[in-house]
Amino acid sequence: MGCGTSSLRNKQPEKVVKAALVIQNWYRGYRARLMARQHYALAIFQSIEYADEQSQMQLSNFFSFMLEHYKHARKEDLVLVNRLRETNLQDLKDRQSYVELVEVPKSYDGPRLQFPLTFTDIDVLLEAFRQQQVLHAHYVLEVLFETKKILRKMPNFTHVTTSPSKEITICGDLHGSLEDLLLIFYKNGLPSENNSYIFNGDFVDRGRNSIETLMVLFVSFLVYPSDLHLNRGNHEDFMMNLRYGFTQEVLYKYKLHGKQILKVLEEVYTWLPIGTIIDDEILIIHGGISESTDLNLLHRLERNKMKTVLMPPMSVNRDQAVDLKKDKAGKIMASGKATSSNSLSEQLSKHEWEQIIDLLWSDPRGKDGCYPNTSRGGGCYFGPDVTAKFLNKYHLKTIIRSHECKPDGYDICHDGKVITVFSASDYYEEGSNRGAYIRLAHDMAPRFFQYRATSASCLSPLYQRVEVMEYSAIRILKERIIARKTDLIRAFQLRDHSRSGKISVAQWAFSMENILELNLPWRTLSPHLVNIDSDGNVDYMSIFQDVHIVKSLETVKSAVIETLYRYRSDLKIIFNIIDSDHSGMISIEEFRAMWKLFSSHYNVCIDNTQLDELAHTMDLNRDGSIDFNEFLKTFYIVHKYDKLKTPHNKFAKFK
Amino acid sequence: MVAEFHKKIKEAFEVFDHELNNTVDVREIGTIIRSLGCCPSEGELQDLIAEVEEEEPTGYIRFEKFLPVMTKVLLERRYRPVPEDVLLRAFEALDTAKRGFLTREELIKHMTEEGEPFSQEEMEEMLSAAIDPDSNSMNYKDYITMMVIDE
Questions:
Q1: pLDDT(A122) > 90
Q2: Over 90: is that where the pLDDT of A62 sits?
Q3: What distance in Å separates residue B84's CA from the closest CA in chain A?
Q4: Rg from Cα positions in chain B
Q5: b/e map of A425-449 (b: 16 or more CB within 10 Å)?
Q6: Which fold has domain B84-147?
Q7: What confidence tier does A98 reach under pLDDT thresholds 50, 70, 90?
Q8: In the CATH hierarchy, which fold is given to the domain comprising A462-546+641-654?
């Protein structure tokens, strides 16, 4: 056979070599197709995530639209508008009302912290969280108050120096993944005077342990305020938390005191610094820059006035200013200039506000120039020329940012000048991406460390990981699709002249992109979504066959249900604002008024009588009020072929 | 027909175009070509890359250069994947004792020493899916069946 073991230089018979070639060739093709499927799944996750962020920004425009037209608001609209303004003004009650009123019962067997905090408390907390214990609300509040006290004294940008013997570690988005934070501390050591860290924003939302992650970071910060640096991310924003799960997590884990915790947290967020500068050459910020980013202005502005991305500053004109002052003080003030007793001075200028949005929301791209970030709806896309000009202007060398999930946990672009670091591994789904952190020191090249927290997925074969991701992604995509069912059917039927129920793949792909605007590879995804016949034509109704929105109210038309399902996140936020006493109920009039405003701004057509019917049906005890949490819960989706063991989906738990 | 090919190629390309500037890293070209259903050998792949690269290689491939070359490949139905039975016979050729399986060591030896050898990553990935941990061997018939269903 010629396969003797004696000689190393033994040449294998041609047959064997050929066989090996066939197998290798086939395997490489197979593996490439798996990798491509993985990329497509990631593309789905990402485009849906960004579309959600865009909705958030749209809501922001809706609010500013209402605030700007305050003067011309109708009586019914005034309710909502006033509530919006009030939200801007609310004062934080002092410590007395919160911490001291919340007692820790003797029966509590969770972690207890000793103030002033020391490194022992960090250990205590980590150990407790590993055992899945919950930190008592009393300590949460105490930590939040202490954190705010220290953060207030810090400038907008923390300046840090390094040396060959004193490296610093930079971590990106964690999004409530305590596992990843624990893994980083395990691999890279706990924070200390000799082990500095920068956490570059987005500590919360989406993951299951946002509050625990936040507590570990804040406690570590309190113990080592000069060595652990926290930058604000776009998710350190109470409005984002409402949409992306952190609010739910807090209210679920802290049923008694959750609301207080959230209230205090709102203000703590505003005191987080917006960036760090290392050795006067490296800028660390969460998102990116724009062509108009003005570092000097950003150093000077009062960052704590940036409450939320959803409340842009009201534009002030003299008439409005006078009206308001007359309203508040009951008498006319001397000039049109805002005074400290007036809400308007508690705002940033529109320009300042936009500067911060750019910093927290922008993404780098390969194309030169600076143009609006249409995926996310806020901030911009900035090109290599913008980076070069900016770094030159401020005598900087590099920008390190986060904000975008990268398959390898980090990414370098713009000719090495922009580095992205993302620390939440398997962010979208098991197997989706690695997490990373960076260690660097002055005059040394940065070193990148990658990891995956879910050890299980390291052992499972690639095809399994891809299957899991793909399943999750298609599932989420189908939920978006069903929410536009009526519009999609109309688009398909427009092209189906013969009423055969079939259209070409090209027509189908065009319709899908037209209606959903997700910029996805529809042709490649088509086999997962629809039935295609031997002629290559698409049976377009087949896309709806295994998913539907539960129609809990038989009399209400599908189109109404779809629309409400689609905007449920926005509605949740609006309801929360209207419900100023946090009772969970709003009146039918409020519901109607809010809906009218909303539908006119969003150009949504729903028969008013249908909506009234819906509202009345929701008024279960006929007292004129709606429990909106119950209301929103009625819109959920059923997947017909849900496997019994659904893959772990990070989005599912707290949405 | 050609228009549909163009759209398919564009979709496959765009998914790897991270910076949204109509270029992809040259290291991803193999994956893109294979994801479109072709199975070129490593040698054939290098030839294709040479065709789509710039005169002065930049490490990036532009879509304008990739599209015509890839369209031709699809139209001419080049680099078609082998049918299942050919794959089975290939495994049988390696299984000289006709046992119906290959041991872990044998698989590693053949895949990393002959033909167009696997990288360590490729080898590890194949092992994780193919090798039964109890017997430390690969039943290639079952393996093929499993992989083909998946496609």
A1: yes
A2: no
A3: 10
A4: 18
A5: bbbbbbbbbbbbbbbbbbeeebebb
A6: Recoverin; domain 1 (1.10.238)
A7: low
A8: Recoverin; domain 1 (1.10.238)
Out of 1.10.238.10, 1.10.287.470, 3.40.1190.20, 3.40.630.30, the CATH code matching B2-75 is: 1.10.238.10
Q: How many other C-beta atoms are found inside a 10 Å radius of the C-beta of residue A647?
A: 16
| Euclidean distance between CA atoms A646 and A225, whole angstroms | 42
Instruction: Quickly list H helices, A306-369.
Output: 318-329, 350-361
**Chain A: nearest CA to B15, how far in angstroms?**
7
> Both tokens of residue A412?
């370098």
Residues in chain A closer than 8 A to B73 (CB atoms): none
Q: Which two tokens stand for residue A476?
A: 């989420």
Round to whole Å and give the CA distance between A228 and A224: 6
Which of A262, A313, A307, A309 is closest to A287 using CA atoms?
A309
Buried b (16+ CB within 10 A) or exposed e, A615-637: bebbbeeeeebbbbeebbebbee
Inter-residue contact B111 to B126 (CB < 8 Å) = yes
As beta bridge partners, residue A448 has A438
Note the ipTM here. 0.94
- Per-residue confidence at A331, pLDDT binned at 50, 70, 90? very low
Average pLDDT for A525-542: 91
Torsion of CA A563, A568, A570, A574, to 10 degrees: 110
- d(CA B46, CA B41) in angstroms, rounded, equals 9
Name the E strands within chain B. 23-25, 60-62, 101-103, 137-139
Of A16, A20, A29, the CB nearest to B81: A29
In tens, the pLDDT along A203-246 reads: 999 999 999 999 999 999 999 999 999 999 999 998 888 888 89
What residues does A171 pair with on adjacent strands? A199, A437
Q: Report DSSP state, residue A395.
A: T
Q: SS3 letters for A488-544?
A: HHHHHHHHCCCCCCEEEHHHHHHHHHHHHCCCCCHHHHHHHHCEECCCCEEEHHHHH
Is the separation of the CB atoms in A170 and A437 below 8 Å?
yes
Among 1.10.490.160, 1.10.287.1080, 3.60.21.10, 1.10.238.10, what is the CATH number of A548-639? 1.10.238.10
Give the pLDDT band (50/70/90) at residue A103.
confident
| Intervals of chain B under pLDDT 70 | 149-151
**Partners of A278 in the β-ladder:** A160, A282
Instruction: Please name every residue paired with B60 in a beta bridge, in sequence order, or none if there are none.
Output: B25
Of B21, B122, B126, the CB nearest to A366: B21
A442 tagged catalytic: no
Chain B CB contacts of A39 under 8 Å are 15-16
Q: Rounded to an integer, what distance in angstroms lies between the CA atom of residue A449 and that of residue A422?
A: 11
CA distance A246 to A250: 6
Which of A138, A175, A235, A403 is flagged as catalytic? Answer: A235
